[in-house]
């Protein structure tokens, strides 16, 4: 049973305006990307996009819209699959020589790092990822993907192949005006610690795992 009410608000998401600030080289283990820095006009919250190759012409652009996960992306946490997903996406882009990572600073599905730690504390006591947010009186998913649309627009990327297991993300991006021509699954980083978490993402959040 998909957990509908908090997760799938039927109203369109707010249009959060971003401005591009600067672009630099980002050499990585998976080749050299261009890193584009953006700021939300009203809040000043920063976000980045990485691009490789010519993303303005030709075939749909292999794209990952990644939500910040400090614990998984930078601290090697095994509670989730975020770090391995980010690495697999960068590797896939390197293999094609072309693609884009939109890295949104929407930690903890938008509830922020400290609230995510609060949620993890409740999960240590037996709640699942959805129940913990609800118990804290927080939305299950507070992310805004129109932001990703605005960043992709700045980069003149209109047609994408999206690397994700989350059909809701595909739908929201489509609704925001991005042409998601295909979805590539990103099933990596499974371990004993995140088995139940991934099961909940499948059962309650509709992830295709
Ligand atoms: N609130 C909360 N956020 C979490 C938890 N585990 C991971 N996150 C955050 O979830 C976000 C990633 O969302 P996921 O549900 O893993 O995946 P997705 O982006 O919806 O879908 P994919 O494209 O398939 O990765 C990141 O911002 C993580 O910090 C958790 O237990 N509670
Ligand atoms: Zn994570």
Automatic annotation (TrEMBL):
List of residues binding Zn(2+): 69, 80, 82
Gene label: ribA
Record-listed GTP binding positions: 64-68, 85, 107-109, 129, 164, 169
EC number(s) recorded for this UniProt protein: 3.5.4.25
Pfam family of the protein (one): GTP_cyclohydro2
Biological or metabolic pathway of the protein: Cofactor biosynthesis; riboflavin biosynthesis; 5-amino-6-(D-ribitylamino)uracil from GTP: step 1/4
UniProt domain GTP cyclohydrolase II: residue ranges: 21-184
GO MF annotations in UniProt: GTP cyclohydrolase II activity
Native species: Vitreoscilla stercoraria
SUPFAM superfamilies: RibA-like
Cofactor(s) the record lists: Zn(2+)
Keywords: GTP-binding, Hydrolase, Metal-binding, Nucleotide-binding, Riboflavin biosynthesis, Zinc
InterPro entries: GTP_cyclohydro_II, RibA, RibA-like_sf
The protein's name: GTP cyclohydrolase-2
Native organism taxonomy: Bacteria, Pseudomonadati, Pseudomonadota, Betaproteobacteria, Neisseriales
NCBIfam families the UniProt entry points to: PRK00393.1 (NF001591), ribA (TIGR00505)
